[in-house]
Write a structure and sequence with these properties.
A hairpin with an 8-residue loop joins strand 8 and strand 9. It is built from six helices and nine strands, in the order βββββββββαααααα. Strands 1, 2, 3, 6, 7, 8 and 9 form a seven-stranded antiparallel sheet that branches. It has a two-stranded antiparallel sheet with strand order 4-5. 40% of the residues lie in helices and 21% in strands. Helix 1 runs antiparallel to helix 2, helix 1 packs antiparallel against helix 5 and helix 2 packs parallel to helix 5. The protein has 235 residues and is an alpha+beta fold. The chain has two domains: 83 residues, no CATH class; 123 residues, Up-down Bundle (Four Helix Bundle (Hemerythrin (Met), subunit A)).
């Protein structure tokens, strides 16, 4: 969660620094970066200033916007940060051998979650699961459902029975609710669980890729690495 210090700078996880904790500064050697100030009635302090203030990441240079109540001249003797944009959540580590398209889609799901687009994030993580299973040869024919693909992967031992249950309950069913059912609010905790188990499944398939490829070949599966270029389904 973003915090503001006595110097008026904001400490927050920066999206362009791969989610690392960074300091966003409100001024440079040329002066402050920009601000719109109005008056504001604070619940405890009475009449104070309210800034819509520009910041810049000290690491990558990305811009940010903070909404801050304070008294006196900025940063003031006391201050409250109402909101800050952008703010990244922690980024879950992925194995290096995850196909670039699948990794990018997983990160897009994380960005949806950061932006508060909860239903969109659930759909993205379901899509990551679907593309992962297809990339590993579990889309046997056109009509093979995601439910069947999960069961086949568990039957081969590519994922555990425990992971199979999580893939169904935390990722597939939640994503299906978004794609096929009437609109309803989804708890962010449910999508956090979907993200967590989606990452675990990517680790199952790609952390020790050579061993997994051996298992897939012995089970008669054709992963993208074993297909002719024209046949590859990697995104």
């Amino acid at each position: 969660m973003a915090t503001i210090n006595d110097e008026g700078n904001v400490t927050v996880c920066c999206p362009d620094c791969d989610g690392a904790l960074s300091t966003y500064e409100w001024r440079s050697s040329q002066g402050q970066l920009g601000v719109i100030t109005s008056s504001h009635d604070h619940s405890h302090w009475g009449s104070v200033r309210l800034d819509f203030r520009l910041f810049r990441c000290a690491g990558c240079g990305r811009g940010g916007l903070g909404v801050i109540a304070y008294a006196g001249q900025y940063p003031g003797s006391y201050r409250e940060l109402y909101s800050f944009y952008p703010e990244a959540r922690d980024r879950l580590p992925l194995p290096k051998s995850v196909p670039p398209g699948i990794a990018t889609e997983f990160r897009e799901g994380e960005k949806c979650l950061e932006a508060g687009c909860i239903r969109a994030a659930a759909g993205m993580f379901r899509s990551v699961l679907d593309k992962t299973l297809r990339a590993n040869g579990y889309k046997e024919k056109k009509g093979t459902t995601l439910e069947q693909q999960i069961d086949l992967a568990a039957g081969d031992g590519a994922i555990t029975q425990a992971r199979k249950r999580r893939a169904h309950d935390e990722i597939r069913v939640l994503g299906n609710d978004v794609l096929h059912d009437e609109w309803q609010e989804i708890p962010v905790e449910d999508v956090e669980a979907s993200r967590h188990y989606c990452q675990r499944i990517l680790e199952d398939f790609y952390d020790d890729r050579a061993s997994v490829l051996g298992l897939l070949r012995s089970s008669g599966r054709t992963a993208d690495e074993d297909k002719q270029p024209a046949e590859s389904s990697e995104i």
